[in-house]
Design brief:
Layout lengths: L16 H18 L2 H14 L3 H29 L1 H20 L4 H29 L2 H12 L1 H20 L3 H23 L30 H4 L2 H31 L4 H16 L2 H11 L1 H21 L3 H12 L4 H14 L4 H30 L3 H19 L10
Helix pairs in contact: 1-5, 1-6, 1-7, 1-8, 2-7, 2-8, 3-4, 3-5, 3-16, 4-5, 4-8, 5-6, 5-15, 5-16, 6-12, 6-15, 7-8, 7-11, 10-11, 10-15, 10-16, 10-17, 11-14, 12-13, 12-15, 13-14, 13-15, 13-17, 16-17
Amino acid sequence: MIKRFLSNEGKSGIHYGYVIISMGTMVVVGSLGFARFGYTMILPVMQRSLGLSLTEMGLLATGNMIGYLFFSLIGGMLASKYGPKLVITLSLFLVGLAMIGTGLAQGFALALFMRIITGLGSGGSNVPVMGIASSWFAPRKRGMATGIMVGGSGIGLVLVGLVLPRIFAYYGEMGWRVGWYLLGGLVIIIGILAYKFLINRPYDIGLCPIGGEETNKTQNGVSSLQWSLVYRSKTIWHLASIYFLFGFSYIIYATFFASFLVDERGLLETTAGSLWALIGVLSIFSGLPWGLISDRFGRRTGLVAIFLLQFASFLIFSLTANFSGYLISAVLFGLTAWSIPGVMAASVGDHLGSRLAPAALGIITLVFGAGQALGPAVSGYLADLTSSFSLAFLLAACGALLGAISSLFLKLHLTNPG
């Protein structure tokens, strides 16, 4: 199977890098699309079945995020040392088994434990798979590759939204358990496919990266891992601060989107749900065009443009009082939803090369997660003070604007893909 794809650009056949893109997208579908958005869909039915309180529901989500953030850092370092393929494969198996284990839960304690384990596996698979693109694609093609792969989140969102409600309707009280079994089984299958088809670097099978020529397999003359190149890099911490602002701003919008429309603006739940579904569909394609733009015009230009569009989305959402405004806001966000993670993955690969990219991604993802944790807490407090989410969305708009301003000062130095 692999031999059929063994070709460099300009020769007959298909470069194996495109198999890596396809497999990477499937990994994102499993590690984020199913593991994270499956939880969103299953939770209401699961809550009723297990008699969970609102506090316990929140703790399940928090447990998953804690696991994800912890292993984003550790998983990235392990991938840099032992290779992404091994870490991705084992992490996907962990995700799948933990999701099946969640379906077996008879109470809160086991469900929380399994959600933490699911988060660990998600971080251990998603971060390294984004880093693997740095090995297979030269800088001028890297944004395209990561842009396609991040679309897996949107694919997963749409699939769980279509399939799980039908499972709930068919299986009744057992539906939420069957849903976890199905999604967990699918993630394990993705893990098997990842083990079969992922290859750490093109040099391992005698190929060059797509869009690049044969280069030294080391980066900046480094033949061994030098972690100081990651944590002492001002550019990496600058990227982390930009990523923090994205996490802080977008999660406010995503968390309170439906509540704001239904409880404050008086929209029907079905109408708010349709707008959210529209965002899900658009988000599938949000990564590729912005990846191409960042390849063509630079990562800095791409980030500034994305943040400005999200600033407009959040500002319109806060200030408008009619459906057309909500629709414009949803479209703007949907068209940019997963774009920044893709550009970030390409940026760290540009700056440090493929070998250290997973470790750097782990660091900036940890900071990104801190923004995600802080955003809802601060905006929820503001909503309690003002009895409205309008100020919270203005805060999200300010975060996006600061992201655009910070991106203006970003300086990246290209490194040989090693």
